[in-house]
Structure formats: structure tokens, C-alpha cells
């Protein structure tokens, strides 16, 4: 079998499936073979179909560092040479297997998408990297990035968000759709609104989204019911209504609710009203402040299995 240079796949699309220059934007779907891979493909394909854009499938190979170690002085010269050769061969085999597995995973994902959307343009990218640098390589041409809530290494964990989601969201200025197992065609959405500048920016971004205009919208505020908060909520509702949205405003008075916190109230509202997905401003505070006050974004991701669109 021909040896494969493990660095040769750093920047290549599998089987020369590069996006034609005619496509200025794609929907970037990050897959890793975990239980959520099929859901990631389905949501990416749905989004791409609604916008008439291609799907770019991205699989990142994060192979551990070389097994080779500093053997100087540990054993004899001949033994060191023989062992180094064996370890080099092992590195090459590991890279080859990872490459073959990645190719197969991308092919299966593409075939899955084409079953539901046979007219779709689907392109595949296999990169040897960490997730964030790989996404940053493609971000300029990505309209939306779709991630699974749980990565392969965390798919059985109780806290079911992948360890890299926050890093990606903080670094990448693109909408990110985080999904779990099981695809359901979205019919509605809810914007979590708190009157902050981040929340107002979310409303502005949603107003530019043509897909959302085809869905039933809800904008929900949890807080102390006073004139200031109500005014901010209904100003946001009017802005979305004027932009052509079917949008209803809801105020949950925090002094009268039965829920322990804002996130519990939001998830309960979503469940009671069978809303398809959340839209929320992502990580409005610095990591340092988050250490002290926590993160509504992270709490929401851990408390719901509904897809969440994160906007910055």
C-alpha cells in the first residue's frame, strides 16, 4: 500500500471537491462521527436548501502527537534505531487510518444529505488541525456554521455540550447553529430578549434573516415587569413586525414565576409552546466575568435539546 504523508491533507478537500468560485457562501457543517453527526447534516441541509446555498462538510482529524520519544541513553544504539523505525511506521499507519476513516465519514454524510435533497451541492473538506483553526480557514465563505452539541469525545457526558463550542463562538463572527440528536423541520423560533445591547443586536441580525420570516416567531423576556422592560420588549417586537415577521411578544414576570432562574423559565416556555428553536446572543460577557456570574448561553445549551442559534 502506498504510504500517505500525514501532513498532505492539511488544506485539501477530499476527492478534489472544492467549492466553485461562483459560490461566495456556503453552510459549513462540522461533523465528527458522533451521535449528532446525522442531525448536523440534516440541519445544515435544511438551512442550505432554504437559502439555495451549497453545504460544506468539514471533518477535522486531530490525531495525537507522535508516539516517538527521546530515547537517548535509555537503550543501545541499534535498539534505538530499530525502535524509532517502528514508531515512525506506527505514526504513518495512524495517519493513514485516520485519513481513510475521515474520507468514509464525509462520503456517508454527503450520501445522507443527498437522500433528502438530491439537488443539493455538497462539498467535503478533510483537515488535520484543531477544530477552531479549521473553521477559521473556511469562515470567510460560511454563511452559517452548524455544530453538534456533543462532540465524539463527550457524547455520553451528562453535561452535553462539546468542550470547543464556546471557543468557536467567541472567536468566529458568524451565526452558529448548535443541534442535538434528531432533526425536526423548524416551524417556529423564539428570541431570548433581556433588553441588553447584545439582545438588541440579535434582533437586528434576525431582522435580516429571510428564513425566519417563514417561521412563527416569539420574543420572550424574563425579568421584573416594569415600564422600562416592557417598553424595550415591545420596541423589539415592533422592529421585527415592521421587518415582515409574524412575531409575538411575551413577558415572564420574574417576581411571580415558579422557575428557579431565567434559563428554566425560557426552556419551560419553549416546551409549553412547542417552539422549534432558540435564538440567543452568545457569551455577552468576558470569560473573566463568566467565571463569577456564569453564562446564560452555556446554561441554556445544557438545559435544552432543542437547536440553538447563537449570534454575536
Automatic annotation (TrEMBL):
Domain UspA span(s) in chain numbering: 25-179, 189-312
Q: Which InterPro entries match?
A: Universal_stress_UspA (IPR006015), UspA (IPR006016)
Q: Which domain of life is it from?
A: Bacteria
- Which family does the similarity line name? Belongs to the universal stress protein A family.
Task: Report what the protein is called.
Answer: Universal stress protein family protein
The species this protein was found in: Psychrobacter pasteurii
